[in-house]
Amino acid sequence: MAERPILFQGPLVAAVLRGEKTVTRRLYGRRFRCDAGDRLYVRETHAIVPATAYRASREEDGSQVPHRVSPDGLEWAVYREGWTRCKPGRWRPSIHMPRWASRISLYVVDARLEHLQELTHADALREGVQPDRPGWSAVPPFARLWDKINGHRDGASWAENPLVWRVEFYRETERQDA
Fold this sequence. Notes:
With 178 residues, this protein is an alpha+beta fold. It folds into 2 domains: 3-43 and 104-174, Sulfate adenylyltransferase, CATH 3.10.400; 45-102, no CATH class. Helix content is 15%, strand content 26%. It contains 3 helices and 8 strands; from the N terminus they run E-H-E-E-E-E-E-E-H-H-E. The protein has a 5-stranded mixed sheet. The longest helix is centred in the last third of the chain and has 12 residues, at 139-150. The radius of gyration is 17 Å and the shape is globular. The two termini are 19 Å apart. The mean pLDDT is 91.
C-alpha cells in the first residue's frame, strides 16, 4: 500500500466532494501508477493564510470555513473550489499543495489499464460528468473534458485513444464496512 498525490481541477474536486466522482482516468506512462489498496491525497488550488485570518469565520450554515491547519498550527490552507468570500491572498496551483493541506483522501478500490475509448456511459457518470441532455450519453461531454485537460499532450487526445489507468476509489470518510 502506498500513499500518492493526485491532482484534480476545481469542478472535479466539487464532484468528488458531492460523491458524484468515484472513478478517474490518468494517462499511462506519465509518472502515475497506483494499485488497489493505495491511498491518494487530492491536491487542489488553495491559499495558505495565517491561522488567525479565518479562525472566527463561519459559513452561511454556521459551519467553519473549510480548511486544514499546518503542523505548527500557524497557517491554514483554504480551497478555491467552493470559495465565496473575498480572495484570501494568492491562489496557489494544486501542484504546490503540501501534504498537510489536503482535505480529501481517497482509497483505491481498483486500478487497471484500458484504452480511453472503452469508457461507458455509466463510467462517464462516475467520472462526475453529466450528459448534455437527459437521456443522452455522458461519453461525448467526457471526451470534450478529456481533450480540454489532456488533448494538448502528444498522443493523449480522445481521438488517439491512449492507454489509461482507470482508477476506482471512494473518499476515506465515506468508507462503508463490508
